[in-house]
């Protein structure tokens, strides 16, 4: 039998970190060797001999964590949001100088969420209108969600590839924010409501019809199969992987 994958969790006392700690402790073929939170020294990851570190911290520190992990030759599985093309580009560049090290950055590890984004990309070219609504618990620090950004970017790419023009919108006067945020030409709306966990609706409209693609995470355990999949696969994927879709063979 092969040795278990030695896993460190960063942000271990947080909502996602604590769920990940439990999932790693209960899963086959993986072993929790370090659990770090704010104020802990990242060197504990290498001291514990971790092969993979899972980061569920905060947008302001996650990129620094990844660079330090890459320098230490530790693979990284990152669920923390706040990434953009520039920060991802810096990690991609860094990884060219760290052959063999893999980093997976995924805005959403829930299998249903990854599938709904893929379905939205597939549907996008057939619809004139599209808007994204994300709904989360009110303790979330960022808006719109990383998932909503990733969803909108994928839809925008699919629309551009199909030669579709801008989404129709005659609005010339509105209160600031009334039409949501513009992500690559796709409107994204963020709801924060006590009782919610993580939810997203993609609304696609044509004359006389609407397609709604909806995903609900009712519990953070929904993210764990995706996290464990990435932990098991990251060492076989040197370089940067963005999104879980490639690991599920769903394409960009
Ligand atoms: N990809 C995915 O599938 C998912 C991604 N997320 C994302 O994961 C991130 C975390 O979410 P959530 O767990 O709800 O947030 P929490 O606020 O519950 O957890 C974040 C944890 O990180 C800790 N932390 C802060 N700074 C550091 C640091 N420098 N080193 C180590 N730990 C640190 C915090 O400690 P303290 O509170 O003491 O500051 C806290 O315990 C968010 O960006 C969220 O959007 C969430 C769900 C799913
Ligand atoms: O903060 C959260 O809770 C979540 N964050 C991620 C995001 O911003 O997309 C993933 C999921 O939506 C839950």
Automatic annotation (TrEMBL):
Is the keyword NAD in the record?
A: yes
Which HAMAP family does this chain map to? DapB
Query: What's the name of the protein?
Result: 4-hydroxy-tetrahydrodipicolinate reductase
Q: Which residues bind (S)-2,3,4,5-tetrahydrodipicolinate?
A: 137, 146-147
Provide the binding site for NAD(+).
11-16, 37, 79-81, 106-109
| Transmembrane annotation, as ranges | none
Q: Which family does it belong to?
A: Belongs to the DapB family.
Lineage per the UniProt record: Bacteria, Bacillati, Actinomycetota, Actinomycetes, Micrococcales
By its UniProt entry, which InterPro entries does this protein fall under? DapB_C, DapB_N, DapB_N_CS, DHDPR_bac, NAD(P)-bd_dom_sf
Residues in Dihydrodipicolinate reductase N-terminal domain copies:
5-109
Catalyses which reaction(s): (S)-2,3,4,5-tetrahydrodipicolinate + NAD(+) + H2O = (2S,4S)-4-hydroxy-2,3,4,5-tetrahydrodipicolinate + NADH + H(+); (S)-2,3,4,5-tetrahydrodipicolinate + NADP(+) + H2O = (2S,4S)-4-hydroxy-2,3,4,5-tetrahydrodipicolinate + NADPH + H(+)
């Amino acid at each position: 039998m092969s040795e278990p994958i030695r896993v460190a969790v960063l942000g271990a006392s947080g909502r996602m970190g604590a769920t990940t700690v439990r999932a790693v402790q209960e899963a086959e073929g993986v072993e929790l060797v370090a659990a770090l939170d704010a104020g802990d020294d990242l060197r504990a990851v290498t001291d514990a001999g971790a092969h993979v570190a899972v980061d569920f911290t905060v947008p302001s520190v996650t990129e620094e964590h990844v660079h330090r992990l890459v320098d230490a030759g530790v693979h990284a599985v990152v669920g923390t949001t706040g990434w953009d093309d520039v920060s991802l580009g810096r990690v991609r560049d860094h990884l060219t100088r760290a052959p063999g090290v893999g980093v997976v950055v995924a805005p959403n590890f829930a299998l249903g969420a990854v599938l709904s984004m893929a379905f939205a990309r597939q549907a996008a070219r057939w619809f004139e209108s599209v808007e994204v609504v994300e709904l989360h618990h009110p303790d979330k620090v960022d808006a719109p969600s990383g998932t909503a950004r990733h969803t909108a970017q994928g839809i925008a790419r699919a629309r551009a590839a199909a030669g579709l023009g801008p989404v129709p919108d005659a609005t010339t006067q509105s209160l600031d924010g009334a039409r949501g945020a513009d992500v690559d030409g796709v409107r994204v709306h963020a709801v924060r409501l006590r009782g919610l966990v993580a939810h997203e609706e993609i609304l696609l409209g044509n004359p006389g019809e609407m397609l709604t693609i909806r995903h609900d995470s009712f519990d953070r355990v929904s993210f764990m199969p995706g996290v464990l999949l990435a932990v098991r696969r990251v060492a076989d994927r040197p370089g940067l992987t963005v999104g879980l879709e490639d690991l599920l063979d769903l394409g960009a």
